[in-house]
Amino acid sequence: xxxxxxxxxxxxxxxxxxxxxxxxxxxxxxxxxxxxxxxxxxxxxxxxxxxxxxxxxxxxxxxxxxxxxxxxxxxxxxxxxxxxxxxxxxxxxxxxxxxxxxxxxxxxxxxxxxxxxxxxxxxxxxxxxxxxxxxxxxxxxxxxxxxxxxxxxxxxxxxxxxxxxxxxxxxxxxxxxxxxxxxxxxxxxxxxxxxxxxxxxxxxxxxxxxxxxxxxxxxxxxxxxxxxxxxxxxxxxxxxxxxxxxxxxxxx
Length: 252
Known about the structure:
The protein has 252 residues and is of the alpha/beta class. 35% of the residues lie in helices and 19% in strands. The chain is built from 9 helices and 9 strands. A 9-stranded mixed β-sheet has the order 4-5-3-6-2-7-8-1-9, sandwiched between helices. It is globular and about 50 Å long. The model is unreliable at 226-247 (pLDDT under 50).
């Protein structure tokens, strides 16, 4: 319907992998997502990406965290940027303070080195959103975001921006226009598909590069994704074997 590649299929009842651990059966879904992200970039790793959704509650924040967690566990130096200034959640996943962060960097009242924090996960760093100032108009403007991304890409292999839902919030459009690619998270059957189509148009209208769709909350036994179920089950039950080569992204 959207004419986009499906680069990730996430099962139901997935929690942040900092709770489940890297050996969780769910972790393989994010390894496949990381591999398909490499495929989409012709084998070139790294870059700055925004993870967005059309509406609230589609699972973009958990998707972003778990993808970042997997990248870090595989040796990439990774930064999570919580750019959802109105509804930040990454600090709650990590159990860290949100007192200072992105807002302070954008207002240039705190050096970026003082706002980026190490986490309990090796190779994974975190830039909280910070507290939203009373007058936040123009805080996330294109030039500031562009300068920030350029700076962060010199420090990290992957930079993942947890953006607000793109419907009705200009912040996401600005971030989408400046990053290397956008991952559109769609929670299966949560909203009418026209909403996802509108989200796609909004991203494309600002020049955003949509890498593909991550289908979230899939019942892999009932929603025509038996291949993924059998693959995850086989992988999680097999020790000391090479993972099967993932298929190239399919079309939605």
